[in-house]
């Protein structure tokens, strides 16, 4: 048992050390959210005055939880998918021949990716007050909890996919055909309850839309912007984490 | 044998025992019913071209791949039932780089030690020891990113030895390194073997390199086609190898074939190749008596390359490469230099 815990800790610690040492990655991780929030967001917000109806400021506020969610999404997904090349050309191979169970490796990887995603997301939270969104200790606590749920869901998905796909090309395909649509149809950038019917339906089977919905609840607490009740959001995410982690561990355990 | 890695009721002298191993990938036979054993404390080599099944066999023995059928024991443990026990007593140096280059050398060793559940005090002492063994002391706190290809390989060997394994696997340990560095790596391996009791299982497609082995299995297309000491393997070739070119190869071939007991091999290009017992006596005679003018002639002692050629009719060559192999080679170049 102690051996397995050490294994989990080792896999986790490696991810954290790599992250902290990767200054360009930390700095670069600001770039995308800032671009989305202050360039795309401000641009779209100002278009409201062209097409009538005010509410530009409200739009930026609406988008903010989406950007926090986006940061968590991309960070945890890429962290889990790093398995694909780490298995061929990296330290993961080394971990795979060590006397540590595959399950512990999966848990370590999940926690590592989630921790980094939560740190990255928290950094984006610092921009909240700039937009007039108050962040106190209580809100921060709630947001971190939801970030954890999103990160675990997405990391599990990433590990599951990484266990199945073996090539870098397939990884690109997944990024384009799964990750981006998931993000665009999550309600992160625009409200989903006012759009066309098919989008509404797709968003219901998109795990991320529940995460973004919960995030919006924690940060804005505005019932008119909610898609689902909070209990539903959390139930869906917890359910997914359980199901995906069982499938993911099974797939990762499978030997060729 | 006095440490904790001793097998349960293991008493024979074979460290690894492979029986009727078969591995199929989507119906394709990569390993075709091979059997062999590796003795305790010997250097055992797998020699064969790329794609012959060397790495696949190693990956199955070290629990990374499942087998289709057959049985394997290592140190008395069954490879499919007692994976963790096997993992505990093997050290691996993979064909592809497997260091974390964003970590320092010491951190790489430290993480390895944690995974093998080594107590911190032992780990620290042992890390210094193995770093010293491969002459990396003083560089242990540099990021692996800043290491040269040879240094990385040495660090991987050090790491493979960290947890006192009973068997060290070296899969193409010199692949992608320049000849000078390659020689140095072998020096380390030979030195290592002298200083402690350990079984070494290595693969290579460089003939000269496998000559340090006690025994070699020549493997081709998933089958072991010969297994013996390098000396005995070379002795299967009767004497010296003569290669020559002449003004009329067809005529000369006929002539040479007519000399008692000489078999002429088919060789590519305009060369004729055959073996004779004693080349120093044969050559002057041939030049004197030959019906056609001989343009060039060389004689040399047989190498393992000749053994392979003799056994398969082909030279060990680079197989055609898939896109995955291409990616591999690019990564190797990037990481080794």
Q: Which terms would index this structure?
A:
heterodimer, A: 256 residues, mainly alpha, 11 helices, globular, B: 337 residues, Rossmann fold, Alpha-Beta Plaits, six-stranded mixed beta sheet, 35% helix
**Major β-sheet profile of chain A:** none
In this structure, how is the largest beta sheet of chain B organized? 6 strands, mixed
Q: Give the CATH architecture of the largest domain in chain B.
A: 3-Layer(aba) Sandwich
Strand coverage percent of chain B: 25-35%
Biggest interface, residues from each chain: A-B, 29 and 35 residues
In DSSP terms (H or I, runs of 4 or more residues), the helix count of chain A works out at: 11
Total number of helices of chain B? 11
Shape of chain A: globular
Helix content of chain B: 25-40%
Low-confidence stretches of chain A: none
Number of domains of chain B: 2
| CATH fold annotation of the largest domain in chain B | Rossmann fold
**Poorly predicted parts of chain B:** 1-11
H and E order of chain A: HHHHHHHHHHH
The ordered string of helix (H) and strand (E) elements of chain B is: EEEHEEHEHHHEHEEEHEHEEHEHH
**Separation of termini of chain A?**
27 Å
Based on DSSP secondary structure assignment, what is the total number of beta strands of chain B?
A: 14
Number of beta strands of chain A: 0
Structural class of chain A: mainly alpha
Describe the structure.
The complex is a heterodimer of chains A (256) and B (337). Chain A is mainly α. Chain A has one domain. Chain A contains 11 helices and no strands. Chain A is globular and about 60 Å long. The mean pLDDT of chain A is 87. Chain B is of the alpha/beta class and 337 residues long. In chain B, 35% of the residues lie in helices and 25% in strands. Chain B contains 11 helices and 14 strands. Chain B has a 6-stranded mixed beta sheet with strand order 6-7-8-3-9-10, with helices on both faces. In chain B, helix 5 runs parallel beside helix 6. Chain B starts with 13 loop residues before the first strand and ends with a helix. The chains are: A mainly alpha (256), B alpha/beta (337). Chains A and B meet through helix 1 and helix 5 of A and helix 2, helix 3 and helix 11 of B.
């Amino acid at each position: 048992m102690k051996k397995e815990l050490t294994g989990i800790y080792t896999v986790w610690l490696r991810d954290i050390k790599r992250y902290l040492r990767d200054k360009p990655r930390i700095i670069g991780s600001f770039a995308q959210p800032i671009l989305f929030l202050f360039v795309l967001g401000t641009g779209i917000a100002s278009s409201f005055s062209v097409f009538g109806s005010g509410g530009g400021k409200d739009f930026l506020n609406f988008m903010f939880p989406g950007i926090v969610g986006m940061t968590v999404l991309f960070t945890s997904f890429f962290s889990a998918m790093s398995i694909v090349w780490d298995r061929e050309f990296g330290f993961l191979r080394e971990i795979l021949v060590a006397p540590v169970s595959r399950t512990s490796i999966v848990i370590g990887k999940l926690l590592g990716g989630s921790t980094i995603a939560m740190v990255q997301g928290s950094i984006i939270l610092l921009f909240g007050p700039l937009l007039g969104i108050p962040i106190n200790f209580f809100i921060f606590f709630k947001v971190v909890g939801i970030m954890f749920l999103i990160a675990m869901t997405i990391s599990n998905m990433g590990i599951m996919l990484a266990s199945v796909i073996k090539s870098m090309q397939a990884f690109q395909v997944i990024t384009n055909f799964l990750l981006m649509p998931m993000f665009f149809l999550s309600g992160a950038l625009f409200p989903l309850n006012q759009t066309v019917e098919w989008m509404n339906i797709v968003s219901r089977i998109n795990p991320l839309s529940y995460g973004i919905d919960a995030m919006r609840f924690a940060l804005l607490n505005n019932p008119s912007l909610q898609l689902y009740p909070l209990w539903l959001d959390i139930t869906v995410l917890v359910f997914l984490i359980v199901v995906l982690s069982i499938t993911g561990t099974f797939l990762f355990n499978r030997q060729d | 044998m006095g440490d904790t890695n001793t097998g349960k009721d293991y008493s024979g002298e074979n460290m690894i025992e492979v029986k009727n191993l078969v591995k199929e990938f989507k119906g394709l036979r990569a390993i075709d019913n091979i059997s062999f054993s590796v003795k305790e404390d010997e250097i055992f080599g797998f020699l064969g071209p790329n794609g012959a099944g060397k790495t696949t066999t190693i990956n199955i023995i070290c629990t990374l791949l499942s087998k289709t059928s057959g049985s394997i024991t290592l140190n008395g443990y069954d490879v499919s039932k007692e994976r963790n026990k096997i993992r505990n007593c093997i050290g691996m140096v993979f064909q592809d780089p497997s260091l974390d280059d964003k970590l320092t050398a010491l951190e790489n060793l430290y993480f390895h030690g944690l995974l093998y559940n080594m107590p911190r005090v032992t780990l620290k002492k042992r890390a210094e020891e193995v770093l010293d063994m491969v002459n990396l002391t003083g560089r242990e706190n540099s990021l692996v990113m800043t290491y040269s290809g040879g240094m990385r390989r040495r660090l991987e060997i050090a790491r493979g030895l960290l947890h006192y394994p009973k068997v060290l696997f070296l899969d193409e340990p010199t692949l992608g390194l320049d000849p000078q560095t390659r020689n140095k790596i072998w020096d380390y391996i030979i030195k290592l073997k002298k200083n402690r009791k350990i079984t070494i299982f290595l693969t290579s497609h460089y003939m000269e390199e496998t000559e340090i082995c006690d025994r070699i299995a020549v493997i081709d297309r998933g089958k072991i086609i010969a297994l013996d000491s390098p000396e005995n393997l070379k002795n299967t070739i009767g004497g010296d190898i003569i290669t020559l070119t002449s003004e009329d190869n067809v005529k000369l071939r006929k002539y040479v074939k007519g000399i008692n007991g000489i078999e002429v091999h088919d060789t590519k290009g305009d060369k004729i190749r055959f073996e004779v017992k004693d080349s120093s006596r044969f050559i002057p005679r041939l030049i004197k008596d030959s019906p056609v003018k001989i343009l060039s002639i060389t004689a040399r002692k047989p190498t393992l390359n000749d053994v392979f050629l003799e056994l398969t009719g082909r030279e060990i060559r680079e197989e055609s490469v898939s896109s995955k192999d291409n990616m591999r080679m690019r990564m190797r170049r990037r990481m080794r230099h």
